[in-house]
Amino acid sequence: VQPLVSLFLQEAEKPEQGTKSVIDALSNVLFIYILRHAQQIGLLNQGLLAALQDKRLNQVLEKILFSPQLDWNIEQLAELASMSRATFMRIFQQQLGMPPGKFLTQVRLEMAAVLLKNTQKTILAIALEVGYQSEAHFSKAFKAIYGLSPSQFRKT
């Protein structure tokens, strides 16, 4: 890694044509080294990256991550994973360290936080976009995780 960091520094010190491309390429290489190291020391044995490598959970996670606003239930998710409900719940908990419902809530609220910071959409519009049926229910869930109401979060 040290030679890679030296290359970063050399490129950063001499802004020439193509410097950004070289730094981008070096960043990709560094990221791969970091992932390899994390895998070697066992950091990828649990969590989202590990679960995405599990063929049974991969499709479920992609669906949740790309469409968190849909009205997901455990039976649908277990069916996507081609598992029984009980097996799905157990495997999901083992891989991600939380039940599917909590993961879905976390994804929805993180998406909402990004929308609150980066758009001028109303709180109701954001609530509906991330899968909540009412502003009140969304606000309660948001405050439970972030400690602030959505409007307070937007202002900070």
What does this structure look like?
With 156 residues, this protein is mostly helical. The chain has 3 domains: 2-40; 48-99; 103-155, Orthogonal Bundle (Arc Repressor Mutant, subunit A), CATH 1.10.10.60. Helices cover 74% and strands 0% of the residues. It is built from 10 helices and no strands. The radius of gyration is 20 Å and the shape is flat. The two termini are 38 Å apart.
- Rounded to an integer in angstroms, the radius of gyration calculated over CA atoms is 20 Å
Mind describing the biggest β-sheet?
Answer: none
Count of separate DSSP helical elements: 10
CATH architecture identity of the largest domain: Orthogonal Bundle
Strand content: under 5%
User: How many structural domains?
Assistant: 3
Give the termini separation.
Answer: 38 Å
* String of helices and strands: HHHHHHHHHH
- Please, what is the CATH homologous superfamily of the largest domain? Homeodomain-like
CATH fold label of the largest domain: Arc Repressor Mutant, subunit A
